[in-house]
């Protein structure tokens, strides 16, 4: 039994972090994919989603998943300059390879550039190429055709849409259209961060359209303090925890590791008056549903067809695919990652 000192101690056992920022990245980071996944797994967490402003994280998640059993690891794609901004071909490829979230532009959003005096970085961290960024709507406020195409792809794949650093007006237009074309999972990325910094009536409007606010520890972090914990607690009370998520949004060096940041955030919001049941909904049940964890295959389907799996020789079979007679038990599936040099290979040990 846990010993308690003061307010009841919450934990992140079974929790899911839909938004963390590991290294590699162009911004300084506290820890890499592997360390963050291991720390989250050791804290008992069920899943993490890794986000990078400058790289698609789907393949990174695939390898971390192979290396760290006991936790589910997912990736996605952020539509910044490195993929040519709003690029349906990049989205389609990422979704087919297992992306679970498609994030609208972040540091390369037009609105981000307007607020921060240029795209590519923040007040305190630089990393991208600068410039004016990209908007998802045209001069009349209509969504660009490529955005509609991207929304349709997200709907087809049952993935999550993240609104990121768009302007409040763009977010309203985007969420309305997303719902219209059948996107069921719409996450409103850190509503009280410097961008988009939604006011409460706009946030309520977006929630009514079907968006789910994703509050991040990073927003209230000591270094940035874009909002107070009280403001987050009040917003949760206003729109209802069944529509909300808590995430770490950490990886920055001035913040704790994502698993610890999520714990501190959950505990803080709890102490500001949100019920334990509501915290549970925001860190466990809601993200679980968004990731479809009940039906998510343990690995991307095609892993059964990888070279390593193909090289695995089932026990009892005398002949491998190379026609060479193998003595003793073959490599079981669990050992399939062990590469055995073959006769004739440059590295073969004769
Ligand atoms: Zn983030």
Descriptive account of the structure:
The structure is a single chain. The protein has 350 residues and is of the alpha/beta class. It has two domains: 16-297, TIM Barrel (Alpha-Beta Barrel); 306-350, no CATH class. It has twelve helices and nine strands. The chain has a six-stranded parallel sheet with strand order 4-5-6-7-8-9. Helix 3 runs parallel beside helix 5, helix 6 (168-180) runs parallel beside helix 7 (200-209) and helix 9 crosses helix 10. The relative contact order is 0.12. Zinc ion binds next to loops.
CATH superfamily of the largest domain: Metal-dependent hydrolases
CATH architecture annotation name of the largest domain: Alpha-Beta Barrel
Write down the overall mean pLDDT: 88
Biggest sheet: strands, sense, closure? 6 strands, parallel
Backbone CA Rg: 22 Å
The H-and-E topology, N to C, reads as EHEHEEHEHHEHEHEHHEHHH
Distance between the termini: 58 Å
CATH fold description of the largest domain:
TIM Barrel
What low-confidence regions span 5 or more consecutive residues with pLDDT below 50? 319-350
Q: Helix fraction?
A: 25-40%
Strand numbers in spatial order across the main sheet:
4-5-6-7-8-9
- From the spread of the alpha carbons, the general shape counts as globular
The number of distinct helices, counting runs of at least 4 residues, comes to 12
Question: For the record, what CATH class of the largest domain applies?
Answer: Alpha Beta
What oligomeric state is this?
single chain
């Amino acid at each position: 039994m846990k010993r308690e000192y003061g307010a009841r101690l919450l934990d992140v056992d079974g929790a899911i972090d839909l938004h963390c920022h590991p290294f590699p990245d162009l911004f300084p980071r506290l820890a890499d994919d592997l360390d963050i996944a291991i720390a989250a797994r050791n804290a008992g967490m069920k899943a993490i989603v890794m986000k990078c402003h400058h790289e698609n994280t789907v393949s990174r998640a695939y390898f971390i998943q192979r290396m760290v059993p006991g936790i589910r690891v997912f990736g996605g794609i952020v539509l910044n300059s490195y993929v040519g901004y709003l690029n349906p071909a990049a989205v389609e490829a990422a979704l087919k390879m297992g992306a679970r979230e498609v994030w609208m532009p972040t540091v390369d959003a037009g609105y981000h550039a307007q607020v921060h005096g240029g795209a590519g970085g923040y007040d305190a961290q630089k990393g991208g190429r600068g410039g004016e960024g990209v908007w998802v709507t045209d001069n009349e406020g209509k969504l660009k055709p490529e955005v509609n195409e991207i929304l349709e792809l997200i709907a087809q794949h049952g993935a999550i849409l993240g609104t990121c650093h768009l302007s409040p007006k763009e977010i309203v237009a985007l969420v309305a259209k997303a719902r219209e074309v059948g996107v069921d999972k719409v996450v409103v990325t850190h509503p009280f961060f410097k961008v988009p910094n939604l006011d409460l009536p706009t946030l309520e409007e977006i929630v009514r359209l079907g968006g789910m606010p994703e509050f991040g520890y990073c927003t209230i972090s000591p270094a940035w303090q874009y909002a107070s914990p009280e403001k987050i607690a009040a917003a949760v009370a206003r729109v209802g925890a069944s529509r909300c998520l808590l995430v770490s949004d950490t990886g920055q060096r001035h913040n704790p590791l994502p698993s610890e940041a999520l714990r501190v955030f959950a505990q803080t919001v709890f102490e500001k008056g949100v019920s334990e049941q509501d915290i549970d909904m925001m860190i466990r049940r809601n993200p679980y549903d968004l990731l479809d964890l009940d039906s998510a295959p343990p690995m991307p389907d095609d892993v059964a067809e990888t070279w390593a799996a193909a090289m695995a020789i089932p026990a009892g079979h005398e002949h491998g695919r190379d026609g060479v007679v193998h003595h003793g038990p073959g490599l079981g599936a669990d050992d399939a990652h062990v590469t055995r040099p073959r006769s004739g290979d440059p590295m073969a040990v004769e």
